[in-house]
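re: that chain from earlier
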Amino acid sequence: MPEYSASRHAGEPGGTTEIGESTSAAAAVVEAADASVVTVAELAAVLDGAEHDTTGRPVVLDVRWRLLGPPGIESYREGHVPGAVFVDIDTELAGRPGPEGRHPLPEPADLQRVLRAAGMRADRPVVVYDDADSSVAARAWWLLRWAGHERVAVLDGGFAAWQAEGRPVTTETPQPAEGDVTVRPGGMPVLDADEAAALAREGVLLDARAPERYTGEHEPVDPRGGHVPGARNAPFAANTDADGRWLPPEQLREHFAALGITRFTDTEAETGAGDRATAAAPEVGVYCGSGITASSVVLALHRAGLSRPAALYAGSWSNWSADPARPAATGDDAG
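^ sequence. v structure.
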């Protein structure tokens, strides 16, 4: 499992570590500030150990969500990881829909209230999961890091993997004690529309939506189809395998290299380019429909070892397309 620098701005990867299923080893992974993904076995081992000692138990958040419904809370009520707290992407991890997009960033005070109600504490790690491929859980991962809480990881394969391994499921809703986490925005870079437009020309701007939405052939939600001129299509589904598990870092690097992104920390070390190459590397940004699945591309780039964190255009296409003055490119070409 890959490890990364604890610095939220460095994004430097370490090696891959094979970790056993012992409680102590699994706890070390879940609690690490640099972990981005944990396996079902690792989370299960920590939760099993926490039955006797709750002081080290991570906060587990269920963030299941689907673009066209039904609401994720319905799935949560049918069964979830024991102790997991449901947090709603639409109403709790985003602001009110409007000109800024369908899922704008929440007000810090509102987000802090939600996270404390979920039992989040400054000294506890967090594990988030969705239905399967982490594309939604990645939004929570990104948002918590943006809010200043670095010890957060997504569950590899999501709830589907948890069930596939025969792990316990419950319908009981926990009542966590009030948390004490403090939201401090600014932990991850964010783009607005003007910055996204500039980055599409001067750096690399990735569009994480499905190809048919990128080309403008099909747009089920937003006012018009197409993409930001200059953006390159990088569908979020390419980051995981058929079972919804993350691809290995080296495979992700190959994927992003084909999109023009080559400045990863280990390759810089091999070529001796070092900090000079990192400083000269083009910035990378990502958007999608409303800033949800684009977060999974940010996470994938992090896993791949991108030399700096990719920036998220939080308003994404829902913000861009709502402004008639903003041009829209169509077709396969970046435009």
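The chain has 13 helices and twelve strands.
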